[in-house]
Amino acid sequence: MKALSIILCSAWLLFSTACSSSETDTSSASTESTTATGGQENVKDDDSQQDVVKVAVGSKDHTTLVAALKQADLVTSLSNAGPFTVFAPTNAAFDKLDKATLNALMTDEKKADLQNILQYHVTVSALKADFLQDGQLLGMVNGDNVIVSLKNGKIILNNSATIVASIPASNGMIHVIDGVLLPPSK
């Protein structure tokens, strides 16, 4: 009987100690999760393939695009699982636009217009270049369509931007383009 009492007391002590340390672990985990802010774009992972935003951020040729994505509050959306196909204009492509227009788009007053233009560069699927066909219409995130053409072995969008490179990302495909796509006027 004395041995049974010792075993029960030991079990109770072990159980109560385990419960109290479990409560401590839970509260510290809760603190950690509530202090993190932002979305998927804030996940630090140097080993896995990068998402479309992280690829753009790492490119010296896409600094204007990255600044526009930040201004339009689209970084979190494009950092999510996707899949996305992003037609990413280079800095040189943005340089072809009127500077006053580009500067105006980068203001809070024109954020909706900037979002519309940037969403016209994204479709919800991961399309490799060899999937794109002459005459194909691509439905873009903003609700408009882009027309694909094939000319002399090159893929051209809306007869204004040529795909110059394709880069796979963890959440889709990036096609680097040499022009900025402008949505049709409403």
From TrEMBL:
<feature type="domain" description="FAS1">
    <location>
        <begin position="49"/>
        <end position="181"/>
    </location>
</feature>
<feature type="signal peptide">
    <location>
        <begin position="1"/>
        <end position="21"/>
    </location>
</feature>
<dbReference type="Pfam" id="PF02469">
    <property type="entry name" value="Fasciclin"/>
</dbReference>
<dbReference type="GO" id="GO:0005615">
    <property type="term" value="C:extracellular space"/>
</dbReference>
<protein>
    <submittedName>
        <fullName>Fasciclin domain-containing protein</fullName>
    </submittedName>
</protein>
<feature type="region of interest" description="Disordered">
    <location>
        <begin position="22"/>
        <end position="49"/>
    </location>
</feature>
<dbReference type="InterPro" id="IPR050904">
    <property type="entry name" value="Adhesion/Biosynth-related"/>
</dbReference>
<dbReference type="InterPro" id="IPR036378">
    <property type="entry name" value="FAS1_dom_sf"/>
</dbReference>
<keyword id="KW-0732">Signal</keyword>
<dbReference type="InterPro" id="IPR000782">
    <property type="entry name" value="FAS1_domain"/>
</dbReference>
<feature type="compositionally biased region" description="Low complexity">
    <location>
        <begin position="22"/>
        <end position="37"/>
    </location>
</feature>
